[in-house]
Write a structure and sequence with these properties.
The protein is built from eight helices and six strands. The chain has 224 residues and is α/β, with parallel strands linked by helices. It is elongated. Helix 6 links the parallel strand 2 and strand 3. The model has no long low-confidence stretch (mean pLDDT 95).
Length: 224
């Protein structure tokens, strides 16, 4: 059984957020506040909101509003709120950009193994992306969860009666895809993405022989 993360593993995702953040920081910074300082405040707000509100573009836009209030020391004006709302269009397209090699690699893996998709985020938003990807035919099941932690993986193992040694979690996030899967006893494949959200970063154990690190999605065919 191969379990696949979706955002930034099967299709591009965080690059869209980073483009908006770049525009936001350009708007926020001034001689008394550099980009790094503004980004640090935003990261802090996003980390707190992820714990209480979850993930997705709506929470992200909410965090931008909070950041404006924090940096400017006052409530958001109607004009500022409208500018933030305008960024929602960046996340509204009914299409996704698949990562290189995903379509053909999944088609081949589907002939060899059972596949599952496991993605976290706001349900409606993730369902839209899953549908737009055109990949659902390859997966025995698609699971959208609020968070990926050890309990998430243990519940998935029970639901499908998975054998840990024969199951691999494949993703780009050390925090959500690799470390909790390993703690649940699964093998893992780490495919780094240079635009992985900063809050998903975490250190991996280089001595862990049950974590396979690949440089591209297509390399999966050499191992599975």
């Amino acid at each position: 059984m191969l379990i696949f993360d979706a955002d930034d593993t099967l299709w591009e995702n965080n690059v869209i957020f980073e483009r908006v953040i770049d525009e936001f920081l350009e708007w926020m910074t001034h001689p008394g506040l550099d980009r790094a300082g503004a980004r640090s405040v935003l990261d802090e707000i996003e980390a707190a909101n992820a714990l209480t509100l979850g993930y997705g573009s709506k929470v992200f836009l909410h965090s931008l509003g909070e950041c404006v209030e924090r940096l400017r020391g006052r409530a958001v004006t109607a004009e500022e709120a409208a500018r933030i709302a305008g960024w929602a269009a960046a996340f509204a397209a009914d299409q996704v950009e698949l990562m290189p090699g995903v379509a053909e690699t999944l088609a081949e893996l589907d002939r060899r193994h059972e596949l599952l998709m496991l993605t976290k985020g706001e349900t409606e938003e993730q369902e839209r992306k899953v549908a737009a990807s055109g990949l659902t035919r390859h997966f025995r099941g698609v699971h959208i969860v609020a968070e990926k932690n050890v309990t998430t993986y243990e519940e998935l193992m029970r639901a499908y009666d998975l054998v840990p040694d024969a199951t691999w979690m494949i993703g780009n996030s050390p925090k959500s895809d690799i470390l909790p899967a390993r703690s649940a006893g699964l093998n893992a494949v780490f495919i780094p993405h240079d635009q992985t959200w900063v809050l998903e970063h975490s250190e991996l154990d280089p001595a862990d022989e049950k974590v396979l690190t690949l440089s591209s999605f297509g390399e999966l065919l050499r191992h599975f």
